[in-house]
Fold these 2 entries.
Entry 1:
Amino acid sequence: MKAVDFITQIRNGDIDVVEHTRKVIEQIKKINKEYHYFNAVSEKEALEQAEKVAKNPSGKLAGLPVSFKDAICVKGVETTAGSRILKGYRPTFDATVVERVKKEGGIVIGKTSQDEFGFGAFSVNMGIGYEKPLNPFDKERACGGSSGGSGGISQKADFPHISLGESTGGSIVNPASFCGVFGLCPTYGRVSRYGLLDYSNSLDKIGPMAKYADDIALMMEVIAGFDENESTCADKPVDDYTKQIDIDISGMKIGVIKEAFNGADAGVEKAVRGKIAELEGLGAEYEEISLPTAIKFGIPTYYLISTSEASTNLAKYCGMRYGKHEKLEEGFNEYFTKVRSMHLGQEAKRRIILGTFARMAGYRDAYYMKAMAVRTKIIQEYKKAFKEFDALVCPTVSMLPPKFTDIDKLSVLDHYNIDNLTVGPNLAGLPHMNVPVGFEGKLPVGMMLIANHFDENSLIRIGSDLVK
Ligand code: GLN
């Protein structure tokens, strides 16, 4: 059932919200034992909120179970971004997106599993002590990442549900693709990041993941919009995203990104091209377009900028004010090294080292500053494309969800290259969405739509027309 239909039933009193919430909690605990989609289940808070909603079911999300990636702060509920260094941290406040969801009667059911601090594309770079989420279609395969738990539960839940994920370089659309659901990463600044544990401030975005485009639109209306607590949040009116569902796409012009099919799995290419061919029947036009800079230089640009920002963001987890503490012995340098060595996972350490190197005196101009210049070029390339097209399209990820045994064989660079199609729109701050377009065998395939800044409307319009 779509969230929108469920909420109508709650409002009409056809469903007992407290009883429903109780059942949902039991169900996710059961799913979690097998699939590891949650780092924390917020049973007590969920039931308290359900009692409140029962008395006043007027909110836009009345009674709807909502989960949040673990990097998003929920008051009183353990929030770790999947890292042991934050084990035991219970925020004293709600992130703005959480506050808005609660205000509209949404019920926070838990915190979803992820790569530590968002560092990964498969949800296998787990913090010490955390279990990998398993793909809902095949437990030997990955959910994608880094919002893997959000992708998994969005598919596996047989109750109406929306999850909020976070993307720095593809972490909403990638797991949405591997788990066969919609996932929308909004324009940078469209949704407040207040209360998100930062990975890379100039790239991080929060956005919804769900089975239906209608539910994505509904959640966007709740979470988008100005927030005085967040200086990069845009002060721009929020569109009526749900209205887009009923508008057809006739007359729209869509650019098919040529280079994006190089090296794509044959099954992925077939499903995506098949869906693109349907555009004409729906009244839209499409044409090939080349984006050489974004596809060729996206990966080095993204990894230099994101690790540089991550290395400064993670500096605060040093065993003094934030995160785990240990016994203070020797000098501060030895102490910081001890705490970080003990409690951060391998990939987090690698990113700190890479990012610190890229920003160091003597290397800054050659790496970090150069990456910033290429980022500008990438933005210009997209901006030019949007003079001609309403949206761009390509596969979301070049591969089908891989087996864990195959992921083990990949090099670090192979891991980074998985993001080759998703880093472009993230670097440019452009809204993009995964549309589940079908299956190759039993595995889902995702197609990515990219639109101009603040044009989430086009994504919802096209996505909902293509997949009813
Ligand atoms: N896979 C990318 C990375 O490891 C993207 C992660 C993200 O968007 N949080 O950085």
Entry 2:
Amino acid sequence: MKRVLVTGGAGFIGSHLCKRFLAEGAEVFCCDNLITGSLTNIEELLGKDRFTFLKLDVTNYVHVPGRLDAVLHFASPASPIDYLKLPIQTLKVGALGTHKVLGLAKDKQARVLLASTSEVYGDPQIHPQNEDYWGHVNPIGPRGVYDEAKRFAEAMVMAYHRHHGVDTRIARIFNTYGPRMRKGDGRVVPNFINQALTGEDLTIYGDGRQTRSFCFIDDLVDGILLLLEKGDADPVNLGNDLEVSILDFAQVILKLTGSSSKLCREPLPVDDPKVRQPDISKAKSLLGWEPRISLDEGIKRTIAFFKETESR
Ligand code: UDP
């Protein structure tokens, strides 16, 4: 039986990973300091055999008794609003937290998978973005706390791989959405869906011509498990390569909610990337992975989640 640790296991992506590992028969240790994660995300897992929740801050300390096969480092504030509110914690979990995770993995001879991000490419000057691109990040801008923390984390992972021979993986995760996103996390998917469901105006930041490419959570989890099993130490983009403008995305939300909300304009956040689309040829050839769930289908499932959460 595999024994795995998921840091940030009570967060959006982390909780889906915990659930999947349990379903595949692994013993799962889930740690979280619950500053942006929530026990609600793992309530169906608490008390199950083979599932242990550890409330701890991976920045300070992380330990799991006994053998460990894999550590998946998903702890971090992850929405622009969260990391702007928690800049120091964001830098610390990417830097000190990654160091702690790597130390643990070295000790246990476990494989490590780092949740990195498309934000390492910053406001990209090549399009779509492939893994060879070094990025265009403003280190001292407000988003720099997240982008640079993840860039440092990648450098730290590669150093442990090269210097200590730790078996490592780096997933560069593009915009991901689905059930268990937090309503108030400020990202475009929960914002637009909840605004549409309550009849508020959908807040378009800037002119809405900036683009993103949205991947449904189940597809992403498939990709992460394949990367863990079949990947190598070099970074791999995981995301859906269907690119949409934010204005077009607002129309998708209005159509699928049946809402008559209007659109309103708000200022574009500082350093908001103008375009973002993953080149996923490496994930396709190395892992045999590509997303399967269409935007309409994924958004329908996410709308259902927010409706159900509201009625509870
Ligand atoms: N955005 C928007 N309205 C919102 C929230 C976000 O227009 O209410 C825009 C934001 O400026 C960005 C895109 O949607 O261009 C995606 O934002 P999000 O915060 O989801 O993630 P990001 O890709 O910027 O990390």
